[in-house]
Design goal:
Length: 266
């Protein structure tokens, strides 16, 4: 019998456990345990429901451009639970200066592609707008080494763009610190845009032109909006993964302090 220990019961650990469960159901002789240091499985994903309200203590959505979350939801029977954003309520707000301010129209994720809405937006100072516009003229990095998402946004668009635009948007997706997030892992399209076009704005405009040159898609609503979630919160995903792994042992409040090699393994 093969013994497998998964350290960490976040979404990656739970998805790994489900993959092993699939092999067990095919006849693989595997004993698997998932060890989680806290009392909560799901990692950053933490949905609370009370008095008819739903509160996400971590990320509240995922990006449909990265297909793996949707694929996982379909695989574990949550396809009919997927829900997108309201097409009639497309504005995004940022709380700054003790008031709610709308994100300017024309943002492609975090990249401005329309001059006038961006120039007139009260969200950014004129110094911040000029700094973001400098992306059009700044040279590329010159190498293909990875860097943090914060470093990348700060280098291309400036500190104000990171603080007022990137951080609020990322909080709902990753609920993580941009200073520790890999640009290649989280937003590879930004990294590729700089490599190919030198400028993020030029890259975003090129993608828009390319999309406009494609044959028109069949009419009808798209099944997925850019940001997707589950009807009863992202916690549905982690809860279903736990249900789908009857042959896996899950241990909460179990902290791993050391990993040491033995003659037969670890």
């Amino acid at each position: 019998m093969k013994k497998i220990i998964i350290i960490g019961g976040g979404i990656a650990g739970l998805a790994s456990a489900y993959r092993i469960q699939e092999e067990i159901e095919k006849g693989a002789d595997i004993q698997c345990e998932v060890l989680e240091a806290s009392a909560h499985f799901g990692g950053k994903i933490h949905t609370e429901r009370f008095d008819g309200f739903l509160v996400e203590r971590g990320p509240d959505s995922f990006i449909s451009q990265k297909p793996w979350a949707i694929q996982l939801c379909k695989k574990i029977g949550l396809a009919d639970r997927l829900t997108g954003t309201n097409p009639d309520q497309t504005k995004t707000y940022v709380y700054t200066g003790k008031r709610m301010v709308t994100m300017p129209d024309g943002l492609s994720l975090m990249i401005p592609t329309k001059f006038l809405p961006f120039a007139l937006s009260p969200l950014f100072s004129w110094a911040g707008k000029i700094r973001m516009g400098m992306d059009l003229f700044l040279p590329g990095k010159g190498d293909d080494k990875d860097e943090s998402l914060a470093s990348f946004i700060r280098r291309r668009l400036g500190e104000e763009a990171l603080r007022k635009m990137a951080e609020p948007m990322l909080a709902g997706i990753y609920a993580s610190d941009p200073e520790t997030m890999s640009i290649k892992s989280t937003f590879p399209m930004f990294f590729q845009a700089e490599q190919k076009y030198r400028s993020l704005i030029l890259g975003a405009l090129a993608r828009k032109r390319s999309a406009g040159a494609q044959p028109a898609a069949p009419k009808g609503p798209s099944p997925f909006t850019l940001f997707m979630t589950l009807k009863n919160g992202l916690g549905e995903m982690t809860e279903r993964l736990l249900e789908k792994c009857p042959n896996i042992t899950f241990r909460e409040n179990t902290k791993v302090r050391e990993i040491s090699k033995t003659e037969s393994g670890w």
